[in-house]
Amino acid sequence: MFGGGGNGAWMLMRHGRSDELEKGYKLAPGTIPRALKLAAKYKFAIFWFLAVTVGAGFLAAVPPLLLRALVDRALPPQHHDGRLVLWLAVAGIAVAVISAIIGLASRYLSSKVGEGLIFDLRSRLFDHVQRMPVAFFTRTQTGALISRLNNDVIGAQSAMTGTLGNVVTSLITVGTTISVMLYLNWELTLLALALLPAFVFPSKRVGKRLQRITREQMGLNADMNSTMQERFNVSGAMVAKLFGHPDRELESFSGRASRVRDIGVKIAVYSRTLFVTLALVSAVGTAVVIYVGGRLALSGRMSTGDVVAFVAYVGALYMPL
Predict the structure, then answer these.
(1) How far is CA 176 from each of CA 15, 22, 173, 215, rounded to the nearest angstrom?
(2) 2-318, what's its fold?
């Protein structure tokens, strides 16, 4: 009798589902304008963050040109220009110092915007949730709400600062790299660009699957967090002591935790598979460019420095992908 009553009492506390919070992952109308309105408070910090990010993208194109000048103009036996070697070394140090300063400035600005957004989102979400009717709390798992206040808010902040910065940096880097590559040799540039579809296919295929599994992981984490949250508060502990079955509850929790474990392993395997695949494609593309560029250098159509710089730019071209 006590077991049945206990299960019923316990289920009254746990019958809410996280599906209401997790299944609606599609953006509702007006979500993007609201997000932009929220970010408008930090528009000046975002502007300078994007400015230093653009500067970093352009600066990344300089080192291969320094290497090209070293190989073609300073080291050949007919030149042996020690003064030029010194100036190229100084220029390399200057680029490194400026890059470090830009990196620090970018980190400061992104942290300022990101932490500010986390504060604003958490405050607004907390205020919104506490004004909801009691019926909402009987339908919704506590762990799902905590997940919103923690994981989802941090995810939104990451999308606004980390993802935005990476996208801008990648666009500037790719655009600058392709421009310099076209200047060095347009035929070799077209060959390097012809290999880009080999990056797109695995990224698109595995990326969609990772997105789906990650959503599933969020739901499983919310369910597991709800179990702990509801079990480890005072009322939950009292119900458990009076009517609960520890072995049964442990089995139930272990089942949820094992699903979180299994899906974490699956995500790690898919992520690593994507990384290895893209690294392999990048290695093949670089090897092809080295071979063709070497043949062009042997025929006199490219200098040795051009080939060395071009190989460095190929790595910079493939890296953001």
Answers:
(1) 56, 40, 5, 35
(2) ABC transporter transmembrane region fold (1.20.1560)
d(CA 289, CA 291): 5
Confidence of residue 92 (pLDDT cuts 50, 70, 90): very high
Structure tokens that stand for 37 in this block: 């309105």
Question: Could you tell me the residue ranges of all domains in the chain?
Answer: 2-318
CA 269 – CA 267 distance, rounded (Å): 5
Q: Tokens at residue 84, please? A: 């030029």
- pLDDT score recorded for residue 21: 41
- Residue 110's contacts (CB-CB under 8 Å, 6 or more residues apart) are 49, 161, 162, 165
Residue type, 269: V
pLDDT digits (tens, 9 = 90+) for 197-229: 888 888 778 878 888 888 888 778 777 877 776
Helices (H) and strands (E) in the chain — how many of each? 15, 0
pLDDT in tens, 135-164: 887 777 666 677 666 766 666 666 666 676
Residue 187 backbone dihedrals phi, psi, to 5 degrees: -65, -45
Neighbour-count burial of 134, counting CB atoms closer than 10 A to its CB (0-12 exposed, 13-18 middle, 19+ buried): exposed
